[in-house]
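STRUCTURE:
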């Protein structure tokens, strides 16, 4: 613009000069026009440097995985499990935990789901971490039975979620069976939350692990495991139980022992070859499934976890080595010695005492050990649970905790004494047998009864007796003979006359023997019940020997009979009515000095 103005002014000056010349004025020298201004230089465009290319994400290395799993193991509480009742209580709380369903889509479509659950199938979990809440939000994972949710819990813990539990008690199947509420069909699609930022390397590693979980979820049954052990000498077996468990219960032959708590720290004990076939076991299958998940994460390709664990192995009758489980008599010695040392009134209770106890809060657990047809015909005591004597070993899960008072009753007081003795040996601390002719005496005494069979008992899973001992005592109870080991004084008198090989064992106290005498029979032993285990060396050597135990009334001798049964003596009976019935029948007695 400035240049244009200068040129206009120059033009007007020239024109003015020309006009002056025409008028005769002297010509004026016109200066040359100024040069045009130099063009303005345009600065060059700034150079924009390109963004550096991001390095590709690579899977986590062993050290990073070590750190992640050590954090999981170091922060475990109850091996990160949660029971059904506790879960139900937490669901009713505010805020409730985040509920993660890791089943396949067709499962909730068919069987329903727990209200509020988010469905992310296990193999898809690594690709859907953005649907999970913040690291510090409590998460409870469930599946069909409790297996897959343990894998999920272990993996998410390694990724940084610090409060993940797996639902036990049969997981969704147990939830339904226990009568907790469900919602039909599959949960709604989970929203994207983007609440966390887990380490990309660990995400890549765990996503690969989740997607490569094999068919069957790594389960191996005890039967298949036994077959694999026999057929594959290269199979490596790892026991992840605690040291004290192995010492007490023994182990599967050839096992490598690496407690779960130290699993990562003892990596030097793991097989070097990632393709090595491996089976891991623990007590029940939960800890071994955690360990299996860890090995998968490190790249091991052929790892399975034993369903039912060591307990399932023992229950199926497969052999073990070491520990007290390999010596059942050692278990029995300790169990019965403790039981006999803590007896109060030989663990009996009277009719009126029971009646008063039933009115207290809480009342004792009332165990009816009669047969179903007896309850159908004669009724039962209100609030009782019916478990026939021979079936107790298959129903420990129906019994209360070890410290809960239990009163056992039957028709006349015999079977409930057998039950009381067995349960006392298994660890129940306060079990009593109802005396006074038990249920018959209860009815005769005018105490209230209810018609028919008691309602079916619900599983409590409140006590965990030693598995080997529980299995053994279950077999003993299942094999209780017809007649429950009763022999009357009249029949015994005949047998004593006909069979001099029959052995009598008097379990009364020494003072009773001195005061009242003994049965007039040569082939007998005196072993007070209180010292029955301490004087085990005095028992007959032959476990096939015909033995009859007796006491003052028949109660203590029935306890002794039960003890002998559990040690493998297979022809033992107890004299009904005891020494009182013998003298009442005017059968021969002798002074204690006459006994050899």
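SEQUENCE:
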């Amino acid at each position: 613009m400035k240049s244009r103005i200068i040129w206009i002014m120059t033009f007007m000056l020239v024109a003015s000069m020309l006009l002056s010349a025409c008028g005769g004025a002297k010509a004026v020298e016109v200066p040359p026009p100024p040069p045009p201004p130099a063009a303005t230089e345009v600065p060059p465009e700034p150079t924009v440097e390109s963004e550096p290319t991001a390095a590709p994400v690579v899977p986590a290395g062993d050290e990073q995985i070590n750190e992640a799993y050590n954090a999981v193991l170091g922060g475990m509480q109850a091996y990160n499990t949660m029971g059904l009742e506790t879960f139900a209580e937490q669901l009713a709380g505010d805020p409730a935990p985040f509920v993660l369903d890791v089943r396949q889509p067709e499962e909730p479509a068919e069987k329903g789901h727990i209200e509020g659950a988010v469905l992310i199938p296990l193999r898809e979990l690594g690709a859907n971490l953005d649907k999970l809440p913040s690291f510090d939000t409590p998460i409870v994972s469930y599946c069909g039975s409790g297996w897959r949710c343990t894998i999920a819990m272990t993996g998410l813990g390694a990724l940084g979620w610090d409060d993940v539990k797996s639902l036990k008690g049969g997981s969704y199947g147990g939830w339904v069976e226990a009568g907790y509420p469900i919602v039909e069909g599959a949960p709604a699609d989970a929203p994207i939350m983007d609440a966390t930022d887990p380490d990309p390397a660990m995400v890549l590693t765990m996503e690969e692990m989740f997607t490569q979980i094999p068919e069957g979820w790594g389960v191996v049954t005890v039967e298949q495991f036994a077959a694999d052990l026999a057929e594959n000498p290269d199979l490596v077996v790892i026991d992840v139980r605690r040291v004290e468990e192995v010492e007490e219960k023994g182990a599967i032959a050839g096992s490598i022992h690496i407690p779960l708590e130290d699993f990562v720290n003892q990596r030097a004990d793991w097989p070097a070859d990632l393709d090595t076939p491996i089976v891991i076991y623990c007590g029940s299958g939960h800890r071994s499934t955690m360990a299996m998940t860890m090995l998968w994460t490190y790249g091991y390709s052929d790892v399975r976890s034993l369903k039912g664990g060591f307990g399932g192995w023992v229950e199926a009758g497969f052999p073990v080595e070491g520990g007290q489980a390999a010596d059942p008599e050692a278990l029995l010695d300790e169990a019965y010695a403790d039981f006999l040392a803590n007896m109060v009134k030989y663990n009996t209770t009277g009719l009126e005492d029971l009646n008063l106890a039933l009115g207290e809060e809480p009342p004792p657990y009332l165990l009816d050990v009669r047969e179903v047809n007896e309850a159908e015909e004669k009724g039962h005591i209100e609030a009782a649970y019916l478990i026939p004597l021979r079936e107790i070993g298959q129903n420990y899960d129906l019994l209360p905790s070890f410290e809960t008072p239990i009163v056992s009753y039957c028709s006349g007081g015999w079977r409930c004494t057998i039950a009381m003795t067995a349960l006392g040996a298994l660890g129940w601390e306060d079990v009593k047998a109802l005396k006074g002719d038990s249920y018959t005496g209860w009815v005769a005494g005018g105490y209230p009864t209810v018609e028919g069979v008691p309602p079916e008992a619900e599983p409590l899973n409140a006590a965990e007796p030693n598995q080997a001992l529980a299995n053994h005592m279950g077999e003993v109870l299942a094999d209780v003979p017809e007649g429950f080991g009763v022999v009357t004084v009249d029949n015994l008198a005949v047998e004593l006359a006909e069979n001099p090989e029959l052995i009598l064992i008097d379990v009364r106290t020494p003072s009773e023997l001195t005061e009242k005498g003994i049965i007039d029979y040569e082939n007998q032993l005196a072993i007070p019940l209180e010292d029955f285990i301490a004087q085990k060396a005095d028992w007959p050597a032959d476990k096939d020997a015909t033995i009859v135990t007796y006491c003052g009334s028949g109660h203590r001798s029935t306890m002794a009979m039960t003890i002998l049964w559990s040690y493998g003596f297979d022809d033992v009976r107890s004299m009904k009515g005891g020494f009182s019935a013998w003298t009442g029948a005017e059968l021969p007695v002798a002074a204690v000095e006459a006994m050899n």
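REMARK: Residues 219-324 form a domain with the Oxidized Rhodanese; domain 1 fold (CATH 3.40.250.10).
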